[in-house]
Structures are given as C-alpha cells and as structure tokens.
Amino acid sequence: MSKDISLRKDAASNKMYPKIELIRIVKNKSGDIFIDNTKKANGRGVYIRPTIEAVEKVRKTKALERNLKTSLENEFYEKLLEEVKLNWD
User: Fold this and answer.
1) How would you list the strands of the sheet with 33-35, edge to edge?
2) Which residue range or ranges hold the YlxR domain (predicted)?
3) What's the pTM value of the predicted model, to 2 decimals?
4) Predicted confidence (pLDDT) per residue in 17-34, tens digit
5) Pair 87, 51: CB distance under 8 Å
6) Could you state, in order of their start, the residue ranges of all structural domains in the chain?
C-alpha cells in the first residue's frame, strides 16, 4: 500500500510539487508571517520551491503578498533567502 504524495502549488511557478520539497510560509490569525518548518502550523499557508530563483521571483511578482493578502518587508525576503541557503542547498 503506497501512501499518496501530497502535492502543493509553488507560488513562483504555479506548478505542483510534492509538499515535502517546498517551503511553507504561514500567516496566522494574529497576522504574524513566518516560515513554517513543521508544515503544520495553523493559518494561511503558501508554498514555494527552496531555490534562490523562486524567492527572487515571488519577491518581484509579489506572489506571496497576493496569496497572504498582506504586504511583506524586505527583511522577510532576506530571511527566506537565508533559509534557502542554509537548509536547502
């Protein structure tokens, strides 16, 4: 019996990828936005591929901001880039 792989849409490319290959960014009820390493936190989740190109693309197109219905500071994107470089390379 094989378990189905959960697919999620990458906000940068609009393509579907296995959930485990993506970074989840969450906006919770109190409006906090953070990188959800557990992939289980409550709130609105948006997924992106853990590549520098994907982070740059969602920054340029404001895809995360549209999906989370909020504006994001430059510092958040810097933190996201650090996360990609540290944990996904």
Assistant:
1) 33-35, 23-27, 44-48
2) 8-80
3) 0.89
4) 999 999 999 999 999 999
5) no
6) 7-87
